[in-house]
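Quick log. Single chain, no ligands specified.
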Amino acid sequence: MINCCSRFLLHATKGVRNRFSIRCRRAFSPRLLHRGVGQRVPLSSQLKDEIAERLRLALGLMETAEISSTCSEYELRNCLSRLYYAFFHASIALLSASEPDIEQVSRNHGALHARLQRKFGKTVLITRVMRELYDLRKQCDYETSMFRTKYGGNIEAGRRDAVLILKRAKTQFYFLYHEARKNL
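-> predicted structure:
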C-alpha cells in the first residue's frame, strides 16, 4: 500500500508537481520527518508544554465566546475578538510542531495567516474563516461606528450575524485544536 509520503516521493522522482504532491510536501516538512518516510521527530518536552499551554488558552477563549439573546454591543465585540484569538492561539499551537520560527511569526498576524494558508491552501475554509475573523476583530476593536454602519444600529441584527459566525467558526476551530493536539 502506498501512503501519502510514498506517493509524494514517487511523484517527486518523476518530476511531477501536481497539487497533491505539493500539499503532501507541505504537510510533511523536514522538521517533522525522521529517516523513515512519514515518521515524526519527537518534540521536546518544552515544545510540547508550549503547545499544550497555547491549546489551553485557545480552548478557554473559545469557551468564553458566547452570545446571549440579551448581550450588548460591547459583549458582542468582546466575544468576536475572543473568537479570533482562540483561532490565533490554536493556529500557533498547530504550526509550532513544524515551523522553526513560529515565535517570530506569532507576532505578525499577516505572517501567521500566510503560514496557515501555506499549510492548508488558499481556498480551504479554515484559512478563509481565520482571515474573516481577523478583519472582524479589527472592526470590533478599532471601529467605534461598526454596529451603526454595518447593522444600522440594530443590535439584534448584529447578534444574529454573530451567532452564525460563531457557529461556523466553532467547527473550524475544533479541527485546528484537534490537529494541534496530535502533536502532544
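The chain has nine helices and two strands.
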